[in-house]
Design a protein that fits this description.
The complex is a heterodimer of chains A (about 110) and B (about 110).
Chain A lengths: L4 E3 L2 E5 L4 E6 L4 E9 L5 E8 L4 E4 L2 E6 L4 E6 L8 E9 L7 E2 L3 E6 L1
Parallel strand pairs in A: 2-11
Antiparallel strand pairs in A: 1-3, 3-8, 4-5, 4-9, 6-7, 7-8, 9-10, 9-11
Chain B lengths: L3 E4 L2 E4 L4 E8 L5 E7 L6 E7 L2 E5 L6 E7 L2 E7 L7 E8 L9 E2 L3 E5 L1
Parallel strand pairs in B: 2-11
Antiparallel strand pairs in B: 1-3, 3-8, 4-5, 4-9, 5-6, 7-8, 9-10, 9-11
């Protein structure tokens, strides 16, 4: 069964606004990672949060993890047109080290 | 650039053709991966190699045949594919294949099967 599911599937905002994407998963995890993909290209790793962490920051990115609810959120602050991309969460299940299970992603459009 | 290259970037093939996708990583990593990304579906892990040994085969049909001759190179040999195999095929590498590793992705090969 699919591990990570993102919400919303698509998001359209104006430049300067904040964008929040959510991810839910089903089984216990070792860590959760967020990736970004520009149209038709490879994925770029954004941030990794371990199961014993609750929040992590990287530049304009803020990731939270709630293991009791099996959910994570990615917040992009002060969005830019260049942030337009698809964003995926991926989980590493507790018993399968190194195996990433991806959700379907959130497509973010930032309008200039 | 992530340090992972893939060739070709685009490939169109008939169902009776045999072709190969190539991936090369310049990061000194020991684990390499093949993923399939189809429209409207999550990224699917196909194969994992760690230290040139296949450690994961995610129920992939035998018409896909991976090869890892050394830790820097990974191939995906294709034969008698079906139109539903049309997708973006992504290669990735990581330091050791462990849970805490970040995976670095190549740009992908866009495959169209006629």
């Amino acid at each position: 069964s699919q591990q990570g599911e993102e919400d919303p599937q698509a998001l359209s905002i104006q430049e300067g606004e904040n964008a929040t994407m959510n991810c839910s998963y089903k089984t216990s995890i070792n860590n959760l990672q967020w990736y970004r993909q520009n149209s038709g290209r490879g994925l770029v790793h954004l941030i990794l949060i371990r199961s014993n962490e609750r929040e992590k920051h990287s530049g304009r990115l803020r990731v939270t993890l709630d293991t009791s609810k099996k959910s994570s959120s990615l917040l992009i602050t002060a969005s830019r047109a260049a942030d337009t991309a698809s964003y995926f969460c991926a989980t590493v299940p507790l018993r399968n080290t190194g195996k990433l299970i991806f959700g379907q992603g959130t497509t973010l459009q930032v309008k200039p | 650039e992530t340090g992972v290259t893939q060739t070709p970037r685009h490939l169109v093939m008939g169902m009776t053709n045999k072709k190969s996708l190539k991936c090369e990583q310049h990061l000194g990593h020991n684990a390499m991966y093949w993923y399939k990304q189809s429209a409207k579906k999550p990224l699917e892990l196909m194969f994992v190699y760690s230290l040139e040994e296949r450690v994961e085969n995610n129920s992939v049909p035998s018409r896909f045949s991976p090869e890892c001759p050394n830790s820097s190179h990974l191939f995906l040999h294709l034969h008698t594919l079906q139109p539903e195999d049309s997708a973006l095929y992504l290669c990735a590498s990581s330091h050791s294949g462990r849970a805490r590793d970040t995976q670095y992705f190549g740009p992908g090969t866009r495959l169209t099967v006629l």
